[in-house]
Automatic annotation (TrEMBL):
GO molecular function, one term: G protein-coupled GABA receptor activity
Record-annotated membrane-spanning stretches: 266-289, 309-330, 342-363, 384-405, 442-463, 483-499, 505-528
First-listed, main subcellular location of the protein, grouped into a coarse class: membrane
Any GO CC annotation of this UniProt entry: G protein-coupled receptor heterodimeric complex
Keywords: Cell membrane, G-protein coupled receptor, Glycoprotein, Membrane, Receptor, Signal, Transducer, Transmembrane, Transmembrane helix
Keyword Transmembrane in annotation: yes
The species this protein was found in: Hippolais icterina (icterine warbler)
Identification of the protein by name: Gamma-aminobutyric acid type B receptor subunit 2
Pfam family, one: ANF_receptor
């Protein structure tokens, strides 16, 4: 009945009762259920014997200390646990540890006030007289209530008699236990009773005594009064600094779960942002270098517009790092959801822009140098921009479909509860923000597949152009290194980022470092070699490696000859003039090569068509041979055909063979058959003079067309290397 009444009162005060357990013998099962239901404040109604068992079970279940508060009856005898400790299975120190801090609730046996009571005595005077009269007799804690009860009866009878005397219908002598009318008069008189007794204010409401409740707390193996509640005045008085809680604050009525957002550390974000800014400054420096030197032959051959796109893609990748570091601690939930989309778009477009431009200009080199038909092929930057635009268009199609069909949303992932690091009586439930959607795996697979194909295409182009001998055009080695580094870092970064998704600091650090490393390595591999070459030897990178080797060999021979002959300053100046004239004449050879090719094609045709060969062709051949003799640097060195023609001036073409006719021998040597024979000897001579300008054999090397009177240098210097030339 007491429990039911208490339950009704608690519900009326909007106090939730989490669980109610009853037991008759072993309370441990009930204690476990209370702990399982996360009950923190326990109201116990049991006697001393059962109290010992309950606290032993509480110790075993660790339901004591700063997180729990036990409230039990306070009318137990003094040192009540000592009488029942032997009947339990727990040690005395364990029992006292579990009992520490419990609060006992009991009525106040005597008032602590020093006011005079209805009897004219103070509660202290009454207690002193009571103990004197009691002597050695056993004391009862209810003696004060018995004393005040007698005064209640007396005052009730006096008030009832006064009422009956005034009514003159009934008298007190007419009282019996079946007289309901007199019973109501007595009950009404009792409810009107109000006086100050030795137990405090004596008042009745609905037949119940409204008294004073005393609160004690078990502290260091003894009960200490900590406060009292006056039910008449509805006033709770707590003695100052008397209650000792075992924690920093009173126990909570249940486990307080505090959600805590796992956010990115501000110092970490600042450090990575600083590294990102340095990377963007480096990219800006490369952009300035590329624009400033765009008219330099080295930079012009490496497609400066494509280089600008590579830098732009790197800077977009750098910029995405700032967005990856912004979470719920910096922006609102709606802004975070927008950032999910923006940072994905920026990183994707930046990646495609950088590597798309790099692969596009490599494709141009591949298309030119792998031209089997040897036709003149011009691929302008506009076409390369179109290729990069096509790659970006594919990206935009994927991203737009992603955004329309299944956009990225802000999701919150909750983790297991953790104890408070500060020691407070709360539990921390970490939560983490993610950018996810319903079919995240499918969309990422599409993006990764497209980027993977792009990387494979770049590797194919780099492999195909690996033998291009002009350094300014051949970036295959650097492209391969970039693809390797980016591929490895992306695979490692994606795996580690997935495994550390519950640690935002580690995940952000890995993602940021991967982006910084890949962007920096790519930009440095593209621009640092150009910067070094432009400062040291800008012409070497724009020349064919074979021609460069031949020129270096010439310089070494020239230095050796100069050291042997001790040429003075004037001779050096004359030598430079001759070299300049030699270069001009070689250019003339290049121009006349076309005419030579036409003559060769005509000579390979039918004999009937040879009559159409003009006299100016014959004169052009003599001019070519004259230039060849000048480039050899020796006035006495003449080609065999040139000597022969000087001795026999040319005549009209179309003469017949002397074996068939009796015409002049001059006409006989100008016949088509003799012209073909002479050209068969002239063409090797011409090729021998022309090859050095395109990286072939040195003009100074030994040749079957050199006269026996040639200089010793021509006879004894071995050739640099030998090549077979076709299609000249």
């Amino acid at each position: 009945q007491v429990r039911n009444d208490l339950t009704g009162v608690l519900y009326g005060e909007d106090i939730e009762i989490s669980d109610t357990e009853s037991f008759s013998n072993d309370p441990c099962t009930s204690v476990k259920k209370l702990k399982g239901n996360d009950v923190r404040i326990i109201l116990g109604q049991f006697d001393e014997e059962m109290a010992v068992k309950v606290f032993c079970c509480a110790y075993d279940e660790e339901m004591y200390g700063s997180k729990y508060q036990w409230i039990i009856p306070g009318w137990y005898e003094n040192l009540w646990w000592e009488s029942w400790i032997n009947s339990s299975q727990c040690l005395s120190k364990n029992l006292l540890a579990a009992m520490e801090g419990y609060i006992g609730v009991d009525f106040e046996p005597l008032s602590s006030k020093k006011n005079k009571t209805i009897s004219g005595r103070t509660p202290q005077q009454y207690e002193k007289e009571y103990n004197a009269r009691r002597g050695d007799g056993q004391s009862s804690k209810f003696h004060g209530y018995a004393y005040d009860g007698i005064w209640v009866i007396a005052t009730t009878l006096q008030r009832a008699m006064t009422y009956l005397n005034s009514s003159k219908h009934q008298k007190i002598e007419d009282f019996n236990y079946t007289n309901h009318k007199l019973g109501k008069i007595f009950l009404s008189a009792m409810n009107e009773t109000r006086f100050f007794g030795v137990t405090g204010e004596v008042v009745f409401r609905n037949g119940e005594r409204m008294g004073t409740i005393k609160f004690t707390q078990f502290q260091e193996q003894k009960e200490v009064k900590v406060g009292e509640y006056n039910a008449v005045d509805d006033n709770l008085v707590i003695i100052e600094n008397s209650i000792r809680f075992q924690g920093l604050e009173p126990p909570k009525d249940k486990t307080i779960i505090q959600e805590e957002l796992r956010k990115i550390s501000l110092p970490l974000y600042s450090i990575l942002s600083a590294l990102t800014i340095l990377g963007m400054i480096m990219a800006s420096a490369f952009l300035f270098f590329n624009i400033k030197n765009r008219n330099q032959k080295l930079i012009k051959m490496s497609s400066p517009y494509m280089n600008n796109l590579i830098i732009l893609g790197g800077m977009l990748s750098y910029a995405s790092i700032f967005l990856f570091g912004l979470d719920g601690s910096f922006v609102s939930e709606k802004t975070f959801e927008t950032l999910c989309t923006v940072r994905t778009w920026i990183l994707t477009v930046g990646y495609t822009t950088a590597f798309g431009a790099m692969f596009a200009k490599t494709w141009r080199v591949h298309a030119i140098f792998k031209n089997v038909k040897m036709k003149k092929k011009i691929i302008k930057d506009q076409k390369l921009l179109g290729i990069v635009g096509g790659m970006l268009l594919i990206d935009l199609c994927i991203l737009i479909c992603w955004q329309v069909v299944d956009p990225l949303r802000r999701t919150v992932e909750k983790y297991n509860m953790e104890p408070d690091p500060a020691g407070r009586d709360i539990s921390i439930r970490p939560i983490l923000e993610h950018c996810e959607n319903t079919h995240m795996t499918i969309w990422l697979g599409i993006v990764y597949a497209y980027k993977g194909l792009l990387m494979l295409f770049g590797c194919f182009l780099a492999w195909e152009t690996r033998n291009v001998s002009i350094p300014a055009l051949n970036d295959s080695k650097y492209i391969g290194m970039s693809v390797y580094n980016v591929g490895i870092m992306c695979i490692i970064g994606a795996a580690v980022s997935f495994l550390t998704r519950d640690q935002p600091n580690v995940q952000f650090c890995i993602v940021a470092l991967v982006i910084i490393f890949c962007s920096t390595i790519t930009l440095c591999l593209v621009f640092v070699p150009k910067l070094i070459t432009l400062r040291t030897n800008p012409d070497a990178a724009t020349q064919n490696r074979r021609f460069q080797f031949t020129q270096n060999q010439k310089k070494e021979d020239s230095k050796t000859s100069t050291s042997v002959t001790s040429v003075n300053q004037a001779s050096t100046s004359r030598l430079e003039g001759l070299q300049s004239e030699n270069h001009r004449l070689r250019m003339k050879i290049t121009e006349l090569d076309k005419d030579l090719e036409e003559v060769t094609m005509q000579l390979q045709d039918t004999p009937e068509k040879t009559t159409y060969i003009k006299q100016n062709h014959y004169q052009d051949l003599n001019d070519i041979l004259s230039i060849r003799n000048f480039t050899d640097g020796k006035d006495g060195e003449k080609a065999i055909l040139k000597n022969h023609l000087d001795q026999n001036p040319p005549a009209q073409w179309g003469s017949s063979d002397p074996s068939r006719t009796s015409k002049d021998p001059i006409e006989d040597i100008n016949s088509p058959e003799h012209i073909q024979r002479r050209l068969s000897l002239q063409l090797p001579i011409l090729h021998h003079a022309y090859l050095p300008s395109i990286g072939g054999v040195d003009a100074s090397c030994a040749s079957p067309c050199v006269s026996p009177s040639a200089s010793p240098r021509h006879r004894h210097v071995p050739p640099s290397f030998r090549v077979m030339v076709s299609g000249l």
